[in-house]
Amino acid sequence: MPGLCFLCLSLLSVKRRTSYPVVTEQVEKAGEAVAQAQAKKKTSGQRGRPKGSKNRNRREVELSPSLQFIPEQIKRWLQQIGDAFKGVYFIFDGELGHHDAMQMVRQVGLHWVSKLRHNSALYFPYAGPYAGRGPQRKYGKTLDSKNIPSAYLQATSIDEEIETTIYQMALWHKKFAEMLNIVVIVTRDLQTHKTAQVVLFRSDLTLGYAPLIDYYRLRFQREFNFRDAKQYWGLEDFMSVKATPVYKSAHLAMCMVNVSQALIRPMRAQWPAFSVNELKAWFRGRKYVVETLQLLPAMPDALCIDQVVSQMAALGRVNPAVNPA
Questions:
Q1: Can you tell me the distance from the alpha carbon of 102 to that of 111, in angstroms, rounded to the nearest whole number?
Q2: Using CB atoms within 10 A of its CB, is residue 196 exposed (0-12), middle (13-18) or buried (19+)?
Q3: Which residues neighbour 25 within 8 Å (Cβ) at sequence distance 6 or greater?
Q4: Residue 302, CA distances (Å) to 284, 289, 307 in order
Q5: Quick check: 118 and 197 in contact, CB under 8 A?
Q6: Which residues share a beta bridge with 21?
Q7: Could you report the per-residue pLDDT of 127-167, keeping only the tens digit for each?
Q8: CA 201 to CA 216: how far, in whole Å?
Q9: Which of 49, 88, 260, 312 is most exposed by smallest CB count within 10 Å?
Q10: Stated pTM of the model
Q11: CA nearest 189: which of 154, 208, 226, 162?
């Protein structure tokens, strides 16, 4: 089925727990697939390291077409926010939880927060004696997720028969050039004794486990942006097929996501459950009142107009307002 793919970079507010779309661009997935297939075809051949090849700097990576597109948008995003505030962390899900993506982000001056596979091979730093020849050993024992040393335990909690244990440590991964700040979250059902784990990582070794988990949880706020843009602001309904109308339609939908969030925030002081549907009903009611008042032979005073508009605009709400008393 034909469709569109968009890359959206957003600002995540830790204080307000909200995501604000800033840059939205269309991604051509078909061209990317062809380029990746051609790259794989070129590299196929004799196995092993080519004769005469030299060691290379692992921080200088050759990015795929999709990864080449992302840093260009990050630089554009950084130019847009300017000196208003400083972006520090770039958060992405497990799809880009690999070395090339981390180096891509580090090259633009940001730190990387993402997720590894639960069965990734991670190694403790080697702390044994020097063997007396060759380079110093880099990798120590492999991390056993079922028997993580208690010295790395950070927190334990139980909620509804689910025990959650959090570990944090600095570990090596053989496909990464730098040591990683690893947080392992192990959950265990106390009744069935089934376990599951999530492995989060980031490039900054100084960040604690609590903010790392909190930042990664905020990643899901971006999904709410796409949900609102599709459900309320026409991202799923526009019928444009040419490049410029598609570009404008997508940006208008994301712009309305930001506008609606700015309008909803002050309303929730007296209306905590105020939603986008109620926002649209509010302005629709105000529009009806204003159009009706214009049909009167004489306009009432301003105080009467404000009272009528306030009462009539609230008729479409689903959740009641909370009185300050």
A1: 8
A2: exposed
A3: 6, 7, 69, 73
A4: 20, 13, 9
A5: yes
A6: 10
A7: 888 877 878 888 999 999 888 999 999 999 999 889 999 99
A8: 10
A9: 49
A10: 0.78
A11: 162
Query: Cα–Cα distances in Å, from 144 out to 87, 121, 163, 223?
Result: 35, 9, 19, 33
* Residue 299 amino acid letter: M
| Tokens (6 digits) for 62 | 């050759």
Can you tell me the distance from the alpha carbon of 155 to that of 221, in angstroms, rounded to the nearest whole number? 25
pLDDT digits (tens, 9 = 90+) for 171-220: 999 999 889 999 999 999 999 989 999 999 988 888 899 999 999 999 88
Place of tokens 């459900």: 231
278-325 residue pLDDT tens: 888 888 888 888 888 888 887 777 777 777 777 776 666 666 555 543
Amino acid at 197: Q
